[in-house]
Design a protein that fits this description.
By secondary structure, the protein is α/β, with parallel strands linked by helices. Helices cover 44% and strands 17% of the residues. It is built from ten helices and eight strands. Strands 1-2-4-3-5-6-7-8 form an eight-stranded mixed beta sheet, with helices on both faces. Helix 5 packs antiparallel against helix 6.
C-alpha cells in the first residue's frame, strides 16, 4: 500500500529510485496506477502531488521531495504535462536526474499543437462533444465555485477521446485544481511558444526516453523531431494501438510496461 504524506505518496520500499510526475497540470493522482505497478515489480517509487502555484515553485517542491526521500540521482517518469515538468527539472538540476522518461508528452513546439483539440472533439459522440464545448465555455467564464468539478469532468471526457481501447481499470478519483491548472498552463504555454522550453534540452545531461502512443492526439512528431535536435542521448518509442495513457490501453499496456521496466531496471 502507498504511504501518504503531505504532498506525495511513496510506494514499495526504499531506496526510492523513481518519481512519477502527473499531468494536467493539477491532476494529482493520475499516475497512481503506474506507481503501484512499478512497486509491484520491486521498485521504490515516489508520487509527488505538485501543490505549488508556479513552475519555479513546482521545480523547487520536487527538489525538496527528492532530496528528502529519494536515492539521488533518480529516474523521473513524467506523463503529459508531467513530462514537461521532468524536462524542466532535468535541465535545472542535471545532477539529480539519472534518466528522464517522457510518456505521452505534449509537443515541444507550438506549431505541432494546433490540431489537438479538434482531434479530441472529433473522436467524441455528438452528445459528449456538445458537453465538452459547454464545459470549455464555462471554464472561460468567471465563477466563484464549481470550476474544479468542471475541469475534472472535462478531463474525463478528454480521457475518453484520448484512448484507443481502454481497460476498465479501477482508479482513485482525481480532483483537479482549476486555479493551479490555469496558472501553470499559462506559464508552460509561454515557455513553449517562446522556444525556451525546447532550448532547455541543451542543459539536460541524462538520457531521455520518450514513449508515445500512435493514437495519442498529441502528435508524436512534435516530441520526436524537436527533441532529436537538442538532446545528445535520446530514444523514441511509438506504441501501436495506443492512446495518451499507455498503461490503460488493452492492446499496448504489456508493451508499455516491458519498455518502461527495461529502462528502469
Amino acid at each position: 500500500m502507498p504511504a501518504d504524506m503531505k504532498n506525495m505518496r511513496q510506494y514499495g520500499d526504499a531506496p526510492f529510485s523513481v518519481a512519477v510526475l502527473h499531468g494536467g497540470p493539477a491532476a494529482p493522482g493520475s499516475m497512481a496506477g503506474v506507481a503501484s505497478d512499478l512497486a509491484a515489480a520491486g521498485i521504490g517509487v515516489l508520487e509527488p502531488f505538485q501543490t505549488r502555484e508556479s513552475i519555479d515553485s513546482l521545480v523547487a517542491e520536487l527538489k525538496e521531495i527528492l532530496l528528502a526521500r529519494a536515492e539521488a540521482p533518480v529516474t523521473l517518469v513524467g506523463h503529459s504535462w508531467g513530462a514537461w515538468l521532468g524536462f524542466i527539472f532535468a535541465a535545472r538540476y542535471p545532477g539529480l536526474v539519472k534518466k528522464l522518461i517522457l510518456v505521452g508528452s505534449g509537443p515541444f513546439e507550438a506549431g505541432y499543437a494546433a490540431g489537438i483539440m479538434d482531434a479530441r472533439l472529433g473522436r467524441l459522440t455528438e452528445t459528449d462533444r456538445r458537453e465538452a464545448r459547454s464545459l470549455i465555455a464555462s471554464l472561460h467564464k468567471p465563477a466563484d465555485s464549481g470550476l474544479d468539478g468542471i475541469l475534472s469532468r472535462f478531463g474525463a471526457l478528454m480521457s475518453t477521446a484520448d484512448a484507443f481501447d481502454p481497460l476498465p481499470l479501477a482508479s482513485t478519483e482525481i480532483v483537479c485544481r482549476h486555479d493551479l491548472h490555469v496558472r501553470i498552463w499559462a506559464e508552460a504555454s509561454e515557455l513553449r511558444s517562446s522556444g525556451k522550453l525546447l532550448e532547455m534540452g541543451r542543459l539536460v545531461q541524462s538520457p531521455v526516453v520518450a514513449i508515445h502512443g500512435d493514437y495519442d492526439p498529441h502528435p508524436s512528431e512534435g516530441v520526436a523531431e524537436p527533441l532529436a535536435r537538442v538532446l545528445s542521448d535520446f530514444r523514441f518509442y511509438l506504441l501501436a494501438k495506443c492512446g495518451h495513457e499507455p498503461w490503460r490501453e488493452r492492446q499496448a499496456r504489456e508493451k508499455f510496461y516491458e519498455l518502461l521496466l527495461r529502462e528502469l531496471l
